[in-house]
Amino acid sequence: MRRILYIISISLFVGNIAAQRSTRAKEWLKYRNEFIFGIGSSHFLGDLGGRDKIGQDYTPADLDLQSTRMAVSAGHRYKIKKWMNVTNKLSYIALYGNDALTNEKYRNNRNLNFKNNLFEYTGTIEFGYVSSRIKSKYSVKRTLTQRMSNRTWSAFAYTGIGVFYHNPKGKVPDNGAWVKLRPLHTEGQGLAGGPKQYKRVSVNIPLGAYFKFTYHKVWTVALDVCIRKTFTDYIDDVGSNYYNPAALRSNFGDLSMVMSDPNKGNIAGFSSPAADGSPAVRGDNNKDTYFTVQVTAGYVLKKRNRKKARLRSKF
Q1: pLDDT tens column, 262-273
Q2: What letter does residue 59 receive in the DSSP assignment?
Q3: Closest Cα partner for 285 from 102, 117, 109, 57?
Q4: Separation of alpha carbons 191 and 214, rounded Å
Q5: Using CB atoms within 10 A as the burial measure, which of 78, 141, 233, 236 is most buried?
Q6: Calpha distance 240→302 (Å, rounded)
Q7: Rounded to whole angstroms, what are the CA distances from 92 to 69, 115, 119, 211, 292?
């Protein structure tokens, strides 16, 4: 009888441990929805601005910290698996570039500038690792559950697709007013020999990663870095060649001619056509890139267990 009771006790104990482990393994299912808010810095990698040397093709090596601006975002993250999420996010991203901030002589002489406020929506899929629960070093066994630290950390990388609206502006040299550049056709967009007019809505591919801490299973804080590869070269309104200033003036007015070529005149023939008549280069044809560095805070909604409805007697 003692042996039987002993075997039954061991079986119940092992079964209880297995059940607890199974419950813990599926516990993440209660915490699938997270709402996040982020704030941080935005950085442009394109034709304008850059460091005091010949530009590198849109890499952080050409990053001009003086042109740093702000980015804010809000979104929703849904956990498909413990190690896989999908996230939808809306962002406001301010971008800026100014040739006057670089001492590289050709770009400084070009003297172009821009600012652009982007409104962006992205949908991404995330893959990563989530740590096990970490206990506080001050915890004491058999204390209340709330005295146990519920800190966990996770690291995820992600990619997806995004769409954004942009409308670049430039500062007029004479009075410092900011004017919209697209209506000025600064590179002869739509004219003979000029490029097509660029669109204000474009697509990007976000590539990012974040490192996140979760507190008490519902509060999160993370550092998120995301770079966007775009399919437009006109976030800064620069992407082709100088156009005939007389043609710009006759078709779009004096301001179009001024904003197309406000160069300082320090380099002779800087924006003049070559001997064979080919126009001078205003910007290269690589697509623009921008990235953000944000601190995000989030709240995870816990799924509540539905109570079974109780049948009430009519009598």
Answers
A1: 999 999 999 999
A2: S
A3: 57
A4: 56
A5: 236
A6: 52
A7: 11, 13, 5, 22, 11
Q: Which two tokens stand for residue 271?
A: 């924006």
8 A C-beta contact, residue 139 and residue 149: yes
- Yes or no: say if 232 and 198 are a contact pair by the CB < 8 Å rule: yes
What's the burial of 199, exposed, middle or buried (CB within 10 Å: 0-12/13-18/19+)? exposed
Which domains, from first to last, does the chain contain? Answer: 31-301 (2.40.160.20)
Q: What is the pTM of this model?
A: 0.83
For residue 233, give both structure tokens: 């070269």
- Judge residue 103's burial from the number of C-beta atoms within 10 Å of its C-beta, 0-12 exposed, 13-18 middle, 19 or more buried: exposed
Residue 305 tokens, joined = 């267990």
Nearest CA-CA partner of 46 in 230, 204, 181? 230
| 92-114 pLDDT per residue, tens | 999 999 999 988 899 999 999 99
For residue 252, give the H/E element and its range: helix 245-252
What percentage of the chain reaches a pLDDT higher than 70? 80
Q: Which two tokens stand for residue 248?
A: 């710009």
Task: Tell me which amino acid residue 299 is.
Answer: Y
